[in-house]
């Protein structure tokens, strides 16, 4: 192949770069590129300007947290006041956004403009001797010095302020999930269902006669007493626990019940909680021929003909059944409240099947 060689690595010359010394590699390691100092590294005015920029971003974070507090504590919202509700949501949303964005951008600008940017290659070695531990501590102190946090008090103080205030909105939001003093598992053990309360259609509030239900009917129902609760939030909370599915099938399609459950149905009409026992999604999909109820969130499947037992999916227990009967006028009413907690299963409940 002439002067280009024949492709044999044993006979072809290997072109090498470097200082002429053999290194065993086709191309010698060029090493790190020369460090190019930034403007802030050589000009103290530029460094001060960068410090003010970082501090300004930390101040924006602090202002965002204050904005959240104003929306949370100062702006009062009453039922039906949509304008104040929009204002509060705007302040809460923008406040959290500025609080997180300000501190995030501030740290990025701090690292980009002020912290050392030179590359260093250092071999790791095990710490076995006391002097090596001291060397590691000195390295940590050197890193702290490189951040310039000691010699730039404005930057340090605004960072501390932003870091202390930024988590508070999250703490308040989590705390506000439930402000009631009796928060706990016991609250889920009871709903507003009780003996004699009529089952009414949701959302019309129409009472339901047993004779009006045909085989295969599925009705979403709530307690008639729900409308007696005046507060909008309290009414929604009560409804969330008390929503029920009412199903009618042929009486002989129901699996024989034992014990107290023998009187929980009426002529093939059976009722259960709509709240899935997995994570609380609404169970509302009914397959008439198999009598299966499906939760659309994670596909937990319950058999309505067998006291709503779990036949598939991640749910840990059957849907709680509501004992029902009819009153003197033929309307469906509850015999009692649910006899077990509604909603997801938690270990604190001590449920046993």
TrEMBL record:
Membrane-spanning parts: 54-75, 87-108, 154-174
Disordered, as annotated region: 1-38
Membrane topology summary: Multi-pass membrane protein
Subcellular location: Cell membrane
Alphabetical list of PROSITE patterns matching this protein: RIESKE
Keyword Flavoprotein assigned: no
Domain Rieske: 264-333
Keyword Disulfide bond in record: yes
Key words of the record: 2Fe-2S, Cell membrane, Disulfide bond, Electron transport, Iron, Iron-sulfur, Membrane, Metal-binding, Oxidoreductase, Respiratory chain, Transmembrane, Transmembrane helix, Transport
InterPro entries membership: QcrA_N, Rieske_2Fe-2S, Rieske_2Fe-2S_sf, Rieske_Fe-S_prot
Similarity comment: family membership: Belongs to the Rieske iron-sulfur protein family.
Biological role: Iron-sulfur subunit of the cytochrome bc1 complex, an essential component of the respiratory electron transport chain required for ATP synthesis. The bc1 complex catalyzes the oxidation of menaquinol and the reduction of cytochrome c in the respiratory chain. The bc1 complex operates through a Q-cycle mechanism that couples electron transfer to generation of the proton gradient that drives ATP synthesis.
Protein name per Swiss-Prot or TrEMBL: Cytochrome bc1 complex Rieske iron-sulfur subunit
The organism of origin for this protein: Nesterenkonia halotolerans
